[in-house]
Specification:
The chain is of the alpha+beta class. The chain has 4 domains: 95 residues, no CATH class; 191 residues, no CATH class; 194 residues, no CATH class; 123 residues, no CATH class. The strands form 5 sheets. Strands 3-2-6-5 form a 4-stranded mixed β-sheet. It has a 4-stranded antiparallel β-sheet with strand order 9-10-11-12, with helices on both faces. A two-stranded antiparallel ribbon has the order 1-4. Helix 17 packs parallel to helix 24.
Length: 634
């Protein structure tokens, strides 16, 4: 129950954000949910119809009172107490062709019971008076909000191509490609405005006094009292737990026991309450906080949702962000990144950023990371959960961004030094067209490497290295992205080696030296190709994968192939040829040079560093094919 306790505490620490209009998904008052409204009906305090309007799509999210049953309804007659679909609020629903069961009487009874509890709410009385006139749909037709045919039945679909009414843009009707019927105008969700002189807030969904009135009434009628496993106190218990955790259409629940005939809990317990007793207000607040956090600072990938937060409500770093997003957010530096940008400079920038978080967070503040996923539409599981102190969390975030740091190239407009995001790692390891399940599983495998400081899975590193070693049939920007990520992961995997991002001219490891040779051969041939006005990949580019598997034999082929380019360039090639000779002389022994066994990922580090070191030297003579490829990088 630790997760629900932390979410409950988070809600209590952020009560000032309840109903905040600036949040796309607000922190909800208990006993409330959200719905996308389609039509706003405005009435006066006596219950007289004034006007109606179709709600623009961007303004449709509406906070509404709800019961436990109505907030989780999927089918069946369970009304919301105030705002609802025409099926519930319009007595004349059936008269205009409504195909579902008319539930107006249930809605009327629930609204009346609320009014009887709190007679001071004049807006409720006005809505009850208006709906009792039994002409909601008639008024909407007269106001040209809804449209009926000659037989006084609501149209199923708008057949004309022009002058399409706004309601049909929201609820088009008809059927999809699978024959499933689409929502039509009879499915419109209604919300209310009640106008009264001197009242500055006619919108019922924004009225905090109505929110509290419903909370007081609904909590008052909860009659199942027992021990809450979260708070340890005797309180009204929850019978059902909220859904809509990841989005408004999410029906999956973390806690559910609605299967009375199967084996959800039967065989172990007589009743569901024996397994889990949670207070009604506790579960409402905890689920509302989780929904708010996911929308505010979480990351979603299909059915997977991962969010990290401080229980105090303070801002914390996103553990799934790449270094560029972490340091600058949406404020990207337009200057071209420096070639000489070092790991020390990255570390300094990170330390400043981390220091900023410590101003609002104490070392002992609790930070929680939770991952959610669902295998079916109705059931959700917590796939990852960690609790850390703020100091631990920030230390591990900093360690990830410094240890997994390398030059990243995600297109000409996004070049930076730092760690890649888990999603980008997954796409490099298994391709851009990666299966959704594999992507989610890969992200879950990478998350402990960031949060728990666990070792990076070896197979992911090897997969990225193989992808970066094969340039054939891959766009330039995509290969550069794979190269940067492969180098970052290998560097993180081998932190004890203390690899620098700049060229290490004293490093004599066989893998590193062969990577340098490959970069030098590529540079020399590219120089000659550009000087001749040709456009084609170099032999080093085409044979990179084979070079990684058989470096000595492939190098001999590449070296022989350089002869005509040496002749073409003449004395201009002296510097590159001298560097090749220097690297040759750095091998420990002839056997180390002539071995033909496979290179490790270290050769990519040597290759990348040597390429970067050559760029300033050859800038006036060499025009990299990157300039042409960059045009299609995005």
């Amino acid at each position: 129950m630790s997760w629900i306790e932390k979410l409950y505490q988070t809600y209590e620490n952020n009560t000032g954000a309840i109903g905040c209009r600036e949040d796309a998904v607000p922190l909800l008052p208990i006993c409330h949910t959200t719905q996308n409204a389609h039509v706003t009906i405005t009435i006066d305090a006596e219950g007289n119809f004034l006007r109606a309007a179709v709600v623009p799509k961007g303004e449709s999210r509406t906070i509404i009172p709800a019961t436990e049953e109505s907030s989780g309804r999927t089918s069946g007659a369970t009304p919301h107490p105030l705002c609802d679909k025409l099926q519930y609020v319009a007595e004349d629903y059936a008269s205009y062709g409504g195909e579902k069961k008319n539930c107006f009487n249930l809605y009327k009874i629930l609204l009346k019971e609320w009014i009887n509890y709190d007679g001071s709410q004049w807006k409720l009385q006005a809505i009850a008076a208006y709906t009792a006139k039994e002409r909601v749909i008639e008024d909407l037709i007269n106001a040209s909000i809804l449209y009926a045919d000659a037989g006084n039945k609501l149209l199923d679909v708008w057949t004309e191509d022009e002058n399409i009414p706004e309601i049909f843009k929201l609820l088009p009707g008809g059927s999809d490609n699978k024959g499933n019927k689409k929502p039509w105008q009879a499915d419109a969700f209604i919300r209310w405005c009640v106008v009264k002189p001197g009242n500055p807030l006619p919108e019922v969904w924004l009225d905090s006094r109505l929110w509290q009135s419903w909370i007081d009434y609904y909590v008052n009628i909860k009659n199942i009292i027992s021990l809450c496993f979260v708070t340890g106190t005797e309180v009204p218990l929850a019978v059902q737990h909220p859904a809509k955790i990841r989005n408004d259409g999410d029906k999956a629940k973390i806690i559910s026991s609605n299967d009375q005939s199967g084996y959800t809990f039967r065989g172990r317990f007589t009743t569901a309450a024996e397994a889990c007793c949670i207070g009604f207000q506790v579960t409402q607040k905890a689920h509302s906080a989780l929904r708010w956090l996911i929308a505010r600072q979480g990351r979603r990938d299909g059915d997977q949702a991962i969010v990290a937060w401080a229980v105090s409500g303070a801002d914390i770093p996103d553990p799934q962000a790449d270094t560029l997003s972490f340091l600058f957010g949406d404020k990207r530096n337009e200057d071209t990144p420096k070639i000489s940008y070092t790991a020390q400079e990255v570390s300094l920038a990170l330390k400043k950023k981390i220091a900023g978080y410590t101003v609002t967070l104490t070392a002992t503040d609790n930070v929680v990371v939770i991952g959610l996923d669902s295998a079916s539409p109705g059931r959700m599981a917590i796939s990852y959960y960690r609790e850390l102190t703020c100091s631990e969390f920030l230390k591990r975030i900093e360690a990830w961004h410094t240890g997994c740091c390398w030059q990243q190239y995600f297109g000409k407009d996004k070049i930076f030094y730092g760690a890649p995001a888990p999603r980008d790692i997954a796409e490099v390891a298994f391709g851009r067209r990666i299966d959704d399940k594999l992507r989610k599983a890969t992200i879950e495998r990478i998350l402990p490497c960031i949060i728990d400081a666990a070792a990076i899975p070896r197979d992911l590193v090897e997969s990225c290295i193989r992808r970066a070693s094969n340039r054939n049939g891959v766009e330039y920007w995509e290969w550069e992205k794979a190269l940067g990520i492969a180098c970052a992961l290998y560097r993180k995997q081998n932190e004890k080696e203390e690899y620098n991002m700049a060229l290490e001219e004293t490093r004599t490891n066989r893998n590193y030296l062969y990577g340098r040779l490959l970069a030098l051969a590529e540079n020399l041939e590219q120089w000659a190709i550009n000087a001749a006005g040709e456009k084609r990949p170099t032999n080093a580019e085409r044979m990179m994968q084979y070079f990684a598997d058989h470096p000595y034999s492939t190098w001999r082929t590449l070296e022989i192939g350089l002869v005509p380019y040496k002749t073409r360039l003449g004395g201009r090639a002296h510097k590159i040829l001298s560097l090749i000779d220097t690297v040759h002389g750095m091998f420990h022994s002839p056997e180390d040079y002539t071995r033909d066994d496979r290179l490790s990922g270290e050769f990519l580090l040597g290759y990348h560093c040597q390429r970067s070191a050559l760029k300033p030297v050859a800038a006036q003579d060499v025009t990299s094919n990157a300039d042409e490829s960059d045009k299609t990088a995005d």
